[in-house]
């Protein structure tokens, strides 16, 4: 495959919430990038800052209390954090689009599917005739695999199933050929069979339209099936980054290892399912040192004192863990490092 | 009837044939409610009276016949006559026009102003919300009829000023209703997704938030028409609303006070007219609430 250009780059992003209990950084110096036509997975438990990251990219962090307090979001080299609201509106839908977790509530219940799709088109395609707009809307519904597109245009959201609605949402997001599609847990609210279909659809559309996709999920299965590269987030920080193969075959960060170990395996029914002890620290109560230290099986002295940085362990593989720092592993910790 | 439609990816999609949309659904549920239909019937009846009044009324509003003063109901004067010898039946028919006009136009006025203020307060929040909400609080601190009397005494007593006064005192009710509705709707995911496709604030307000907050306004509006009619009658009764010789029902009640002992019909029939219209709007409003409020659906 030819070398693809980076289309979206998030640099040192910090998004904080200003609450009565003080300033709480929900996303803390996060770096990652997406290349043209790539599917990037962002994985992590609830509350680790995945959704806030995606809202930051869209410029939709609820403000107040939220605010981007540091860093850059570069879309084709231009910093979106410096954009005015008016400029951002042009980016949204046109360059970067987003679909949400709840297909049941993401459509306005009072208007027909056609009405809402056509509204989305006219927002960015000024000067199109009604006929063109309608044709485009029907074309989009067909593209996302919905049958009887013409009839569906006249239907209201409550008449569609969850899977159909998520398809409509995808159609609406892709209506203006965005370069990046952010999908925030697009399949979480759907049952497993529909989930697989939606993921398949997203992969197909990614191949056909070359839209880069940022797939935000807590489901490692979804990542393994769909993504090329993965960013693992924990408590507002990126803890590991790499291609799907390296992450799954050679996970390095103890958190990633724990996540992979917690996926149920049908072959060993009698085994008790692994779970990482403890909980994600609440934002605002984040301890000194490595954020995962309190739950880590390989923890050693340095972890609770210093903050690890993201160490490059091989090409396309980075880990935020002292085990992979040259001077990091102490004498007592050899076993942990090799295990 | 349902049909199963397999699609390209073998997903089975169930679709009902009775496709219509939320407003028609509400109408269906309203239609099943007998009491509400009776209310709507009463309202419709008075509406027709108001529209067709001059053609139906056997006599003019001010046709006086001094030899026929204070006659009890008879075949010639169905509801009797008042102390000027005017036909009460004809005057009530004409009065329907005044009462409904006051009811509808004052409520429309307060809905429009209240909605705009409520939307601004709810959507933009911050200091502008504080200012608008405090003004509402101050207005609601007065008993409404007292506020109406104050407004009328500033503007001068007339039907038009009574209407304006009633519109003003109802603004905070609608303003607060819309504000609370907007507050909850703006957190809905379809608003975020409308933003995510690059929609402007104003467009989101008017094409997404406003239509979705209309249901409770329609219900409260119908009920408010009933109370506006009573308030107009009260102001008329106090001499602060419609002026003689307008056949306003409240004014008719006030005029009939002096002859109550000799001619109770002069008071009873306008009273019944007020009661029936108010009852009609209230029954209809209750029915609309049941039809439009999703929580009431079973």
TrEMBL record, chain A:
Q: Which GO terms describe its biological process?
A: peptide transport
Which species is the source of this protein?
A: Psychrobacillus soli
One Pfam family linked to the record: oligo_HPY
At the highest ranks, the source species' classification is: Bacteria, Bacillati, Bacillota, Bacilli, Bacillales
Q: Does the keyword Transport apply?
A: yes
Q: Ranges for the ABC transporter domain?
A: 8-260
| Coiled coil (residue ranges) | none
Q: Main site of residence?
A: membrane
Q: What is this protein called?
A: ABC transporter ATP-binding protein
Q: Which UniProt keywords apply?
A: ATP-binding, Cell membrane, Membrane, Nucleotide-binding, Transport
Report the sequence similarity comment from the record: Belongs to the ABC transporter superfamily.
């Amino acid at each position: 495959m030819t070398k693809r250009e980076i289309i979206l780059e998030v640099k040192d992003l910090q998004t904080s919430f200003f609450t009565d209990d003080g300033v709480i950084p929900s996303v803390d110096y996060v770096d990652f990038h997406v290349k043209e036509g790539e599917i990037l997975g962002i994985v992590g438990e609830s509350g680790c800052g995945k959704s806030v990251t995606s809202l930051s990219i869209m410029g939709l962090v609820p403000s107040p209390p939220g605010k981007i307090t540091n860093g850059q979001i570069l879309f084709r080299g231009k910093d979106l954090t410096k954009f005015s609201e008016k400029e951002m509106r042009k980016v949204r839908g046109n360059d970067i689009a987003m679909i949400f977790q709840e297909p049941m509530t993401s459509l306005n219940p009072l208007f027909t599917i056609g009405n809402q799709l056509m509204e989305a088109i006219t927002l960015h395609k000024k000067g199109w005739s009604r006929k063109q707009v309608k044709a485009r809307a029907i074309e989009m519904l067909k593209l996302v695999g919905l049958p009887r597109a013409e009839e569906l245009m006249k239907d209201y959201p409550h008449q569609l199933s969850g899977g159909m609605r998520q398809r409509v949402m995808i159609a609406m997001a892709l209506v203006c050929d965005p370069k990046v599609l952010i999908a925030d847990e697009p399949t979480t609210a759907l049952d497993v069979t529909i989930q697989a279909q939606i993921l398949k659809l997203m992969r197909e559309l990614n191949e056909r339209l070359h839209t880069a996709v940022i797939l935000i999920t807590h489901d490692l299965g979804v990542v393994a099936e769909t993504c090329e590269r993965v960013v693992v987030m924990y408590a507002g920080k990126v803890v590991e980054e790499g291609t799907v193969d390296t992450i799954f075959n050679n996970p390095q960060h103890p958190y990633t290892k724990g996540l992979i170990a917690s996926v149920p395996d049908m072959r060993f029914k009698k085994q008790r399912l692994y779970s990482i002890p403890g909980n994600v620290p609440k934002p605002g109560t984040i301890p000194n040192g490595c954020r995962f230290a309190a739950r880590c099986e390989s923890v050693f002295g340095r972890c609770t004192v210093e903050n690890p940085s993201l160490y490059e362990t091989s090409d396309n593989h980075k880990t935020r863990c002292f085990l992979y720092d040259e001077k990091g592993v102490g004498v007592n910790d050899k076993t942990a490092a090799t295990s | 009837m349902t049909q199963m439609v397999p699609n390209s990816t073998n997903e089975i999609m169930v679709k009902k044939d009775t496709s219509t949309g939320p407003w028609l659904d509400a109408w269906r549920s309203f239609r099943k409610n007998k009491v509400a239909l009776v209310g709507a019937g009463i309202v419709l009846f008075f509406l027709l009276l108001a529209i067709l009044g001059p053609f139906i009324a056997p006599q003019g509003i001010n046709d006086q016949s001094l030899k026929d003063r204070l006659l009890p109901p008879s075949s010639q004067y169905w509801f009797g006559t008042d102390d000027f010898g005017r036909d009460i039946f004809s005057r009530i028919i004409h009065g329907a026009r005044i009462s409904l006009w006051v009811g509808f136009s004052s409520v429309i006025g307060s809905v429009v102003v209240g909605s705009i203020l409520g939307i601004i307060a709810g959507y933009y929040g911050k200091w502008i919300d504080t200012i608008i909400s405090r003004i509402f609080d101050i207005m609601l601190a007065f008993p409404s009829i007292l506020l109406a009397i104050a407004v009328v005494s500033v503007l001068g007593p007339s039907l038009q000023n009574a209407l304006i006064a009633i519109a003003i005192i109802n603004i905070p009710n609608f303003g607060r209703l819309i504000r609370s509705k907007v507050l909850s709707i703006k957190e809905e995911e379809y608003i975020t997704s409308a933003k995510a496709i690059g929609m402007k604030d104003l467009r989101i307000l008017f094409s997404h938030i406003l239509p979705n907050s209309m249901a409770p306004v329609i219900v409260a509006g119908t009920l408010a028409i009933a109370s506006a009619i009573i308030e107009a009658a009260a102001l008329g009764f106090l001499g602060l609303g419609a002026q003689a010789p307008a056949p306003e029902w409240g004014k008719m009640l006030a005029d009939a006070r002096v002859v109550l002992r000799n001619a109770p019909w002069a008071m009873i029939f306008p009273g019944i007219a007020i009661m029936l219209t108010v009852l009609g709007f209230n029954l209809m409003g209750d029915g609309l609430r049941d039809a439009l409020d999703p929580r009431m659906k079973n």
